[in-house]
Every structure is written in structure tokens, then in C-alpha cells.
Write a structure and sequence with these properties.
This protein is mostly helical. It has one domain: Helix Hairpins (Orthogonal Bundle), CATH 1.10.287.370. Helices cover 79% and strands 8% of the residues. It contains two helices and two strands, in the order αββα. It has a two-stranded antiparallel sheet. Helix 1 packs antiparallel against helix 2. The longest helix is centred in the N-terminal third of the chain and has 47 residues. The radius of gyration is 24 Å and the shape is rod-shaped. The protein starts with a helix and ends with a helix.
């Protein structure tokens, strides 16, 4: 049983559109991963700098356009929690990237298979 040419072309266009969307989303996911990793390095650097300070040090945290006095232990805790949150975000983005790459690969394979059987 053969598929009419018109239906085959329509199916190929739909698969091609899926592949294009997946390719675009792959680029976006990679950009987001890079941004999160940069943010994570900055937080870790800040934590390492805070580790060298004595416990009684006066530290300030940026709040909008001003700075607020913050106890050192609470700032460390906040930054550690932020690091954990960023790690979770990066893991989710990596899973999404894997899904998108698989979708793109499958779309390409389906198009190639359609062209071979034609």
C-alpha cells in the first residue's frame, strides 16, 4: 500500500517543522545551561571568598540599588541554597536538551526514511 504523494509531502513538512523547532529549542537550552553555569561559578566564587572571612565580619548584600547589612552565616546559607537550586535547574535543562536532541535526531531519521522508501 503506497501513500499518496500529497500526504507524503504534508507529512514531510510537518516532520521538518518539528525538526526546526527542536533545533531552535536546542540552541535556547544550551544558552540557558551556559548562563546557569556562569551564575553557579559566580556563587561558588563568592562562597569561597566568604569562607576566608572571620565569623564576626560585617558583610553587605546587594538589594536593588542599595546594600543591606546581612549576618555572614545567613548569607552563606542563602548562597549554598542558591547553588543547590542552580544545580537542579542545570540538571533539568540537561534533561530537556537530551530530549530535544533525541527529537531532532528522530525527525531527521524519519525524513531520511521517507525519502528512501519513495
Amino acid at each position: 500500500m503506497s501513500i499518496p504523494n500529497e500526504a507524503l509531502h504534508k507529512l514531510a513538512r510537518e516532520i521538518e517543522a518539528q525538526a526546526a523547532v527542536a533545533q531552535q529549542q536546542i540552541g535556547l537550552a544550551r544558552t540557558q545551561i551556559t548562563s546557569k553555569q556562569r551564575e553557579q561559578r559566580l556563587v561558588r566564587l563568592t562562597l569561597s571568598e566568604l569562607a576566608s572571612l572571620p565569623e564576626k565580619s560585617v558583610v553587605y548584600q546587594g538589594v536593588g540599588k542599595m546594600f543591606a547589612l546581612t549576618p555572614l552565616p545567613s548569607l552563606r546559607l542563602k548562597l549554598e541554597n542558591q547553588t543547590k537550586d542552580i544545580e537542579v535547574d542545570v540538571d533539568k535543562l540537561n534533561q530537556r536538551l537530551l530530549y530535544l536532541e533525541t527529537t531532532h535526531k528522530n525527525s531527521r531519521e524519519h525524513i531520511e526514511q521517507m525519502l528512501r522508501t519513495r
